[in-house]
Amino acid sequence: MVGVNACGPWVPGLRALRFARNDTSFGCMADLDVTDRKQLSKAVKLLAKECHIIRAAHEFVGVPEWRTRQADYAGLARIIAYQQLSTKAAGTIWGRVEVLLGKVTPKGVLAADIDSLRACGLSRPKIAHIQSIAEAVETGTLNLRRVAKASDDDAREELVAVKGIGPWTADVYLMFCLGRWDVFPHADIGLSEAYRMITGERKRHPPSKFLKTGERWRPYRGVAAHMLWAYINAARDAQRGGA
């Protein structure tokens, strides 16, 4: 696959200021609607104009759909269940969990028999995580309504304070469940691999370096993440089709 030039040197805040000053039609970030295709398309085009990496992804996949999940305990538990699994395998497991519990709630998970959850396909660590989160929600330690109203940083801080919720889970919850546009799960291997594939670099960036790489996509880092996810999925599909 032919690589393209990177986005150029990163200057803290430079691109974010450029977007904010030259394009006020979006309003404040909190007002953006990730389900609005026009707004999403405009954000993608702004990024593509500024960055060759996103431009390459855009030319390959167009404008992807924003991934959405329930903004509640069930949405958070589903993210845990889907970790490190293929979409198909995770969907099968989660479907069994829904059949077992009906509506997935903190009380339902805490009351469920562990062996029954294991029979659904959930690993013991994932069961421990969703139970820990369920307990935090039930006791009020984790207030998802408060999280929904908080800034990205404050919301992430409250989420990761709960055992079973790491930075990746917190960022994905903010993106998928709360529709936050400027969140970037920099430790996601799929994102760093997509970046490596487009640039033609030999190795993926480590998370610490990739976090700095993502700064150039502010204030639409979540949009950039969706572009990279869409790119790697399409590229893998194309490779399988040509095999």
Explain how this protein is built.
The protein is an all-alpha fold and about 240 residues long. It folds into 2 domains: about 15-65 and about 180-240, Endonuclease Iii, domain 2, CATH 1.10.1670; about 75-175, Hypothetical protein, domain 2 (Endonuclease III, domain 1, Orthogonal Bundle). The model is unreliable at about 1-5 and about 10-30 (pLDDT under 50). α3 (about 50-60) packs across α14, α4 packs across α11 and α12 packs across α14. Helix content is about 65%, strand content about 0%.
How far the N terminus sits from the C terminus, by CA atoms, comes to: 15 Å
Q: Helical proportion?
A: 55-70%
Task: Report on the biggest sheet.
Answer: none
Query: What is the level-2 CATH architecture name of the largest domain?
Result: Orthogonal Bundle
Q: What is the alpha-carbon Rg in Å?
A: 19 Å
Q: What is the count of distinct domains?
A: 2
Tell how many strands the DSSP assignment holds: 0
Ranges where pLDDT stays below 50 over 5 or more residues in a row are 1-6, 8-30
Quaternary structure of the protein: single chain
Provide a count of the helices: 14
Q: What average pLDDT do the residues reach?
A: 88
Proportion of β residues? under 5%
Label the structural class: mainly alpha
Mass-distribution shape: globular
Search tags:
243 residues, mainly alpha, 14 helices, globular, disordered N terminus
Provide a short characterization of the protein structure:
The protein is mainly α and 243 residues long.
